[in-house]
Design a protein that fits this description.
With about 600 residues, the chain is of the alpha/beta class. It is about 65% helix and about 10% strand. Helix 1 crosses helix 4. Bound molecules: adenosine-5'-triphosphate and magnesium ion.
């Protein structure tokens, strides 16, 4: 059973979570290095002041000393030492960052992928895979930038602002007041503007991920597109979506230009007035040359800092916007335990028991009502019925993809509610109606359900499913890539490979849902005979529309519309059930 409660994390929780997954100690080192680097640099104006003061003293009083022994040289060495030390600390910080950011980026993507893969089947089928993929990748990149912002850029900014306020105390108090009020006003305006970009970036990320979803959907179904001569139309569809992305990006940029105009304009205006005021005071003899140098250097650093803040806040809201979109794309932030306790009882025989099972999909028609049936260990069962009657649903209930609305399903006398979905799937080998392959080699695809497989086992199962002949025609044989779109292999051949994959899994229950529908009757007969003799001690359930497929089963489950289910041997059903007889006649027409 899957949990349905919505659990989400905020972008900041995800970022901080990523830091903690890697190790918070590295992040603390990064903060220290950032603070140290900027702390050193922000001392520069004071040292520059001393340098200028010593130059002025030299000029005024002409203290004739050897240059190397002069105060000018001493002050210069101090300034240069600050530059060199700050440079070294910056390098160290970059080394620390290397250990933190890529690992956190990986962890976030990994975690989001785990959340995504454990979503409810409905969420996954309703959301484009390309959309989720793009969102996960964007989230990884966003987290890496956010970590740098939080542990480096914002720390530097904070320390720098504090240091600048301290440095300004070396000037007349009015300078401290000007800087203090300007900093508060400027930072507030920056924050206000930047915050407004959050929904814009979120929207941009959303349209970007949507277009990625559309592109991957079209490329995944390229055969369908071509067979309906829709290539041009799909190019048009993608073009329209990319246009939306372009427009969203233009809108963002328009806003950023406006923001820069106001915010940078304000900074430059401040710098000009600040410098002019200090020169004015110098002229009046109220400031020394050193103090003017300090004021000029202070103003330059402040403006530089302010424009940095503006960029960083923008980046912060941009990345949280991207992350926020990813959070919505994923849906539920919970690694869903496909619940049930760990099995304390192994599935050994494959006995199945449906007890009073009633089921319907959300707000849809009733598929089963009070269904009671037992399938014994080793029994061969056929499931038949019209399209949409509920045959695949029966299997989805057995494999715990869905939970009965009421009633219990037991495997080997244990309720499936008490067994994890993972354990059930380990013990049921299934060939579903839609054959799926991963974009990997044929050998990897066929041995997908096994920990390890020998070449002999592989060949043996390929022989049983009549696959050797067509595989020998492939140049790369078992190393050929087998994807959904592989058109070197026919539909029936793909079904045979899917059968081989299911048989290799060595499960106690084998479920074949229309698994041989594309295989000719003669080959199907050979495969099913082989299957029955090799797996005569396994429970086999075969869903089929073909009467010939069901020739050798022990009993048949006939599912009719309106949730009516009949069970019996073929001859019993023919003799006692008119609907079954009619259904059978309609199939042989
Ligand atoms: N996830 C779902 N949500 C809502 N309705 C569903 C869902 N899956 C299937 N159904 C509906 O439930 C009914 C039974 O579907 P099911 O796939 O079990 O039919 P089936 O007997 O296997 O049909 P077919 O022979 O065409 O494969 C159908 O009407 C189908 O549209
Ligand atoms: Mg079906």
């Amino acid at each position: 059973m899957r949990h349905t409660s919505e659990k989400k994390q905020s972008p900041l929780q995800i970022t901080i979570g990523a830091i903690f997954t890697v190790t918070p100690t590295i992040a603390i080192f990064q903060v220290i290095a950032a603070a140290l680097g900027i702390g050193l640099l922000s001392y520069e104006p004071i040292l520059i002041k001393s340098l200028f003061d010593s130059i002025e003293n030299e000029r005024k009083y002409f203290v004739a000393k050897e240059f190397i022994k002069s105060e000018i040289f001493y002050n210069f060495i101090l300034v240069a030492s600050i530059w060199i030390l700050a440079f070294i600390v910056n390098i160290i910080q970059e080394i620390i960052e290397r250990a933190l950011v890529p690992a956190a980026q990986k962890e976030v993507q990994n975690k989001l992928f785990q959340y995504a893969i454990s979503q409810s089947p409905t969420h996954l089928t309703n959301t484009s895979v390309g959309f989720i993929t793009q969102s996960i990748k964007q989230a990884g990149a966003a987290v890496s930038i956010l970590i740098t912002l939080l542990t480096y850029d914002f720390v530097r900014l904070f320390i720098m602002t504090g240091m600048m306020l301290y440095v300004s105390t070396k000037l007349p108090t009015v300078f401290l007041l000007i800087i203090f009020s300007w900093t508060i006003a400027y930072y507030t305006i920056c924050y206000w503007f930047a915050k407004k970009t959050f929904p814009k970036f979120k929207m941009f990320s959303n349209v970007g991920a949507k277009s990625a979803g559309t592109i991957s959907d079209i490329l995944n179904n390229v055969d369908l597109v071509r067979s309906f001569s829709k290539t041009k139309d799909e190019i048009h569809v993608v073009n329209c979506e990319l246009n939306l992305e372009k427009e969203a990006s233009e809108e963002n940029r328009k806003y950023i230009i406006l923001m820069n105009l106001i915010v940078y304009g304000g900074a430059i205006l401040f710098q000009s007035i600040f410098v002019f005021y200090s020169i004015f005071l110098l002229n009046k003899g109220m400031l020394s040359l050193g103090e003017v140098a300090l004021a000029i250097s202070l103003a330059a650093i402040l403006v530089n800092n302010a424009s940095g803040l503006c960029r960083q806040l923008l980046s912060f809201f941009e990345q949280t916007g991207y992350l926020s979109n990813a959070i919505e794309a994923i849906g539920n932030f919970e690694i869903i335990e496909t619940s049930g306790h760990a099995p304390n009882k192994e599935i050994k025989s494959g006995k199945i028991d449906f007890q009073n099972v009633t089921f319907q999909y959300d707000n849809a028609k009733l598929i089963f009502q009070d269904l009671n049936l037992q399938i014994s260990h080793g029994e061969k069962i056929g499931i038949v019925g019209n399209s949409g009657a509920g045959k695949t649903t029966f299997i989805k209930l057995l494999t715990k993809r869905y939970k009965p609305s009421t009633g219990i399903i037991k495997i080997d006398d244990v309720s499936t509610l008490e067994i994890s979905e993972e354990y059930i799937n380990q013990n049921i080998s299934q060939v579903s109606q839609d054959i799926l392959f991963l974009n990997r080699t044929l050998a990897e695809n066929i041995s997908y359900g096994c920990e390890s497989v020998t070449q002999n086992e592989l060949l043996n199962v390929l022989e049983k499913t009549q696959s050797i002949e067509f595989l020998s025609k492939l140049t790369l044989g078992l190393d050929s890539t087998l994807s959904q779109k592989n058109d070197q292999i026919s539909g029936g051949e793909k079904q045979r490979l899917a059968l081989a994959r299911a048989l290799l899994k060595k499960a106690h229950i084998i479920v074949l849902d229309e698994a041989t529908s594309a295989i000719d009757v003669e080959t199907e007969h050979l495969i099913l005979n082989e299957l029955s003799s090799t797996f005569n001690n396994k429970t086999i359930i075969i869903v089929s529309h073909r009467i010939s497929t069901l020739k050798n089963v022990d009993r048949i489950i006939f599912i009719q519309d309106q949730a009516q289910v009949f069970i019996g041997r073929h001859d019993e059903l023919v003799a006692s059930n008119k609907s079954y007889l009619n259904w059978m006649k309609s199939q042989s027409m």
